[in-house]
Amino acid sequence: MTIQRRAFLAATGLLATPRLARAQQAGRLVILGGGFGGASAARFARDHHPRLDVTLVERGARFTTCPYGNLVLAGRRDVESITFGYEGLAARGVRVVRQSVAAVDAGRKRLRLADGAELPYDRLIMSPGIDLRWGAVEGYDEAAAARMPHGWIPALQQVTVLRRQMEAMPEGGVFVMTIPDNPFRCPPGPYERICMVAEYLKRAKPRAKLIALDAKNGFSKQPLFQDAWRELYPGIVEWRGASEDGRVVRVRPAAMEVETEFGDKVKGDVVNVIPPQMAARVARDAGLADESGWCPVKPETMESARAPDIHVIGDACIAAPMPKSGFAASSHAKHAVACAAASLAGREPPAATYFNTCYSHVGPDYGISIVGVYRGTPQRMEEVPGSGGISPRTAALGERAAEHRRLEALYADGWYESITREMFGIA
């Protein structure tokens, strides 16, 4: 029997681990979910805590990132270029188990896998992502999503369907987007999508129009996005906030129509519905979510506030004022691994400092960003005063504006390449 085979059987509880081998291990760290949070946790644990036995549980063979999915809609990227496998992590010594998790048994510290096997852990890091709240917008269910795609979870079909619908739009047609109230995955994402769709329409269907109906009056990087819409897409983009009857309450897929709170009916040739969201079902079924549908955590360690020895990171957790972003998930992951390793070694956890950087493409050679630094305390997650902010507005940049925007677009590409190479073990 090979060492790898024995190690896998030991991790799944099918083979008793010899006492000598267990004495050499710092503990069993199991990570559920292979996205920005989970993959980052696995890579960081393997590189910085080599005595941990690290297992990543992820049902998919490959992961398509939500970041840069909007660029697929603009025609700048294809889906393959934003899709990654786990071979790099496996080559670095992460045990990758390709299965769904049927249940989390926090009392016995075990995961029950879809095939019935049990996977024991000493510490569990959960990065399960989100589920969509089907039915939160009347008429919007999984069947409706085939006609009115959301494109908001890593799924090839949704992104490609939306792109094909855009290509099939008549000249002079209407693209309708609905945007939910907070909180949701990637706060700037819908507004970057507005830009990328408008970029495509300007190039391919210049008489077409985009109507964005928003359940909020304010959003991330709002002044920068609105400057870009006026500058790059005049006459194409119409954004309506909640005070302008922008909150959509029902959809009619057969008619390709949405209805707002006060009864306005808006038809589209393409309708992109981004519905309200919540933590993924595996976290909710494990009792880790509260009545909001999201998972409360202890900000100083990212440990669940509802179960011992479990850390919940990324989009599924409540970490406001931190946004639900890929960079934030990666930052959560590294701190959660450090805290788990410290606990298993009988040490105090390190001080909790988290970081977020979020870039958005808004046009050719035109990028914008927002940054923030956060501190976790026993009482709350708080932004460090004066630690961040958004890119300068165009008027403030003057003659330097074009070069500044071009550089930020390059920085965005560099960030994406760097974080994906890191989290999937490519670099």
Automatic annotation (TrEMBL):
Top-rank taxon, per record: Bacteria
Domain Sulfide dehydrogenase [flavocytochrome c] flavoprotein chain central: 160-275
Ranges of residues in domain FAD/NAD(P)-binding: 28-140
Pfam families according to UniProt: FCSD-flav_bind, FCSD_central, Pyr_redox_2
InterPro entries: FAD/NAD-bd_sf (IPR036188), FAD/NAD-binding_dom (IPR023753), FAD/NAD-linked_Rdtase_dimer_sf (IPR016156), FCSD_central (IPR049386), FlavoCytC_S_DH_flav-bd (IPR015323), FlavoCytC_S_DH_flav-bd_sf (IPR037092), SQRD (IPR052541)
Keywords: FAD, Flavoprotein
Annotated Flavocytochrome c sulphide dehydrogenase flavin-binding domain residues: 350-424
The name this protein goes by in its record: NAD(P)/FAD-dependent oxidoreductase
